[in-house]
Amino acid sequence: MTRSEAKPAIAAVKELFSQHPDGLRDVVRAVLQEVLESEMTEAVGAAKGERSEGRLGYRSGSYGRTLVTRVGKLELRVPQDRDGRFSTELFERYQRSERALVATLAEMYVQGVSTRKVKAITEELCGHAFSASAISAINKRLDESLKAFAERLLAEPFPYLILDARYEKVREAGVVMSQAVLIAVGIDWDGRRQILAVEMANRESRSAWRDFLVGLKARGLKGVEFVVSDDHPGLVKAIGEVLPEAAWQRCYVHFLRNALDHLPRKHADDCLQELRWIYDRRDLAEAKADLAAWLAKWSSRYPRLTGWAEDAIEQTLTFFRLPRQHHKHLKSTNMLERLNEEIRRRTYVVRIFPNTESCLRLVRALAVETHENWMEANRYLNMDDLREHKKTALRQAA
Which GO BP annotation is one of this protein's (predicted)? Predict the structure, then answer.
């Protein structure tokens, strides 16, 4: 659809929402209701009113169910079958992260560290105020499923591991401080992405990252051949100690951001653009040829930058030992960006968490939601490329 063709549709949507403030809620309700009906059709082997010799059951009315979402409370009709076998994961999966967010906001309200706005949000989402006992019950049910996810055994090997951290503000003993959220994503030999762990730490120290990685190995992490992360000293040391057999790739995006620290405020845009182009080359030989040309061109004008880059850039070129088809996915930690953006969008509502547990609860709930979506999607990478790449390397070495 072209931009001109899209204008009437956009205008229609704007008119719908201006004339009917609940228009978005109605759209979401209609979509989710259709999902439920489709699930029932698949379960019984026939649509409503359809005659079919291959049907597996029969419909038997429906019952009402309220689903709390970010567009408000939705009243849905859940179809039933005569044998009572039909069930849907829609509510459990969709509401897990919503319950975590609501529980966190409500906990702030009960503990007296929030504002009237927080109370209004929770009452609007759930239709009532919260007591400490109600929050405890919500959190108990949620924490059980999140604990099972966090402690699950990792049965299969993960040749690729991506590590990253972000910071959230948490109130502890009346003092607001930043705490690190440590995240690990693995790619298995089927080419699927999996969120392996989400943990909290006071900071990104060597001991914090070491404990994090040791915990992963205790749950069964094995077969790691390649690790991608930024160059945080504590993290790099921990990787070397716990995963000494793995090659380490310094995220080139973080590297290019760090390059700005070695440039004057007014600098030629071409300089960093040409440095970035090095990471698009087919192989290491081409990249090093471009690097030599870049150093020769810019060393007289920006000696501080070129001296720093010449010393550090080798850490960002490790990805060239992988199949070329995998380069764009594993030369940076960007695959975690979408998850981090979603975490940032949700935690922005809270601003300051009342304690570490509530922060971990919300972030883990979002991680589980993302993990399930990844597992249901098509494989992220074709790992046959890596298998063939390794075979070729062995033949050449022989």
Answer: DNA transposition
